[in-house]
Amino acid sequence: MSKMLLFTELLIQQKNVTMEMNKKMRAGLLLVLFAGVFCACSGNVGKIEVEGALKSCEQKMKQTLSQLETDSCLLPRSMSLKDSLWSLVSVYDWTSGFWPGILWYGYETSCDAFIKENAVHYTACMEQLLEPQYSGDHDLGFQFLCSFVNAYRLTGEEHYKQAALDGADKLAKLYHPVVGTICSWPYMKQQKGWPHNTIIDNMMNLELLFWASKNGGNPSYYDMAEKHARVTMKNHFREDYTCYHVAVYDTVSGELIKGVTNQGAYDESFWARGQAWAIYGYTMVYRETKNKEFLNFAEHVADVYLEHLPDDYVPYWDFYAPNIPDEPKDASAAAVVASALLELSQLETDSLKSQKYFLEAERMLCSLLSDKYWAGVTSPAFLLHSTGNYPAGYEIDAAINYADYYCMEALVRYKKIKENS
Ligand code: GLY
């Protein structure tokens, strides 16, 4: 709390205005910050105050920046809800791209030079991932999309484009032509004896391959990404469209050996974030291919998720966790799905479906922006109550950077839809 107030003071001093104006500004700023609720929910249909929420995101980004060492390449990943201090990771952590990605969205919505300066700095840090001795895993997609692809989208600078293309080349090296998917975790061959594994999260990272194929990279990456999506559609899902976390494949026949979990409650469970990655992933694949088969599939994987949601639109970490309602929630899954459904609503040509997915996304966003999930002024994070890895016992009921990234993305998408309607 005291740190936040000190930070508020600093902001006001930097503006170099008169004492009288300082008082008024501080009162106004604190009002915005203390409100902390950007959706007035009524009968589950909310009116989202998107500008207020984005302003709060910008304040929180600056609060985080005030906690970080200047010129360091350590990035904020998550925090326990007890102390409001970020745990920091290196660029090699799978979540490293989300912090520069948050800053790029912050720059997009605010045009703030200080936020841009930091987005540039943390994106430059990510270049270490291009060192030849680092081969990486499927997370290269998250890492390069959030940082370099956003940087290129907003600045048009060629070096960002080149870095993203180089990242895509590294990701494509993990593709197995017999199986027809990317090997998500190459080290699991040794650790678990799996010949080839693909996790549902990997659907997100196909976007880097699609992006590269249309931005001067190898055109065959389009086919690679489409094939991965098709093979995953065939093997990764149960009849009711819920998905396994991990599919293990035989590299000689290319056939599925088994579906298992790593982060879900058990192999046949319904891990919330896994399904969220699938909803976002197939929506994105439809955007890129315009193939209605993928649209149809995105609708099915979204509908089963929606059917299982609790009243507040934020799932428990696993829909089949044994002690519901006494299980932690996963706000990160809700943020990913809100962003995905906003996109799905815009891709739909059927107006009833479009309206349905938009309203569901709005309800999710509204819940995330309520005081139950939106972190108050004492925290520099945006969202409370995410679950990272329950079986491994970490980041349970925590604030996590990817929840914030997809929440910010959802807010930006929501704002654009509202402006164009
Ligand atoms: N991609 C890792 C996770 O969702 O936890």
Question: What share of the residues does DSSP label as strand, in percent?
Answer: 5-15%
Number of helices: 15
Associated small molecules: glycine
Rounded average pLDDT: 91
How many strands in all?
A: 11
Instruction: State the order of secondary-structure elements, H for helix, E for strand.
Output: HHEEHEEHHHHEEHEHHEEHHHHEEH
Main sheet record: 4 strands, antiparallel
Radius of gyration: 21 Å
Distance between the termini: 39 Å
What share of residues is helical? 40-55%
Q: How would the global form be characterised?
A: globular
Structural class: alpha+beta
Instruction: Name the poorly predicted regions.
Output: 1-35
The strands making up the biggest β-sheet line up spatially as 4-3-11-10
